[in-house]
Design brief:
Jelly Rolls, 7-stranded mixed beta sheet, globular, 3-stranded antiparallel beta sheet
């Protein structure tokens, strides 16, 4: 894999293997890049029909609630615990999906097959998961207007506190 930015690695071969070495590299990037996250994209480019990423989250970064019109997504947890929070149109919590590794009482896999607002809450200081979604990537995620922006740190804390059961 090749690092193309502080938070992004790409598979540079048509056969992609991700093991401990590659996971450690994205974890280290997430620890040091100031963003609290890093990923390796296993797909060749933004136009691919299927996008697969292994993502590391460190320090419980904020992910603004969003949805992907016309797309589905799935997660499989590799390390740590996270909660996927699903919302109705007004921003009320519809469902919480606790996720973790095999051997816990959490789900190891989830798939969202409709355009629904959601966010991710890292429950551990380091979370690694595999995400799959359909492409192409057009940057067309719709952010929830009722969720704090990535820049509004004070409101993020209030918002996240109401998402906990």
């Amino acid at each position: 894999m090749k690092q193309v930015s502080p938070s992004l690695f790409i598979a540079d071969q048509p056969v992609c293997e991700i093991g401990s070495r590659e996971i450690e590299a994205i974890k280290q990037a997430a620890r040091t890049n100031g963003l609290g996250q890093a990923r390796v994209c296993a797909h060749a480019n933004a136009e691919d029909a299927v996008h697969e990423m292994v993502i590391a989250l460190v320090g419980k970064p904020y992910v603004q609630a969003h949805r992907h019109p016309g797309k589905s997504e799935s997660f499989h947890v590799i390390e740590g615990r996270l909660t996927v929070v699903l919302f109705d149109e007004e921003g009320n919590v519809d469902r919480r999906i606790a996720m973790g590794t095999s051997g816990t009482d959490h789900s190891v896999y989830y798939r969202l097959s409709l355009s629904k607002f959601h966010t991710i809450l890292a429950e551990d200081d380091m979370v690694v998961f595999h995400e799959v979604t359909n492409g192409p990537f057009r940057g067309d995620a719709e952010v929830a207007t009722w969720a704090p922006s990535q820049n509004d740190v004070a409101e993020q804390a209030v918002f996240i506190s109401r998402l906990k059961p």
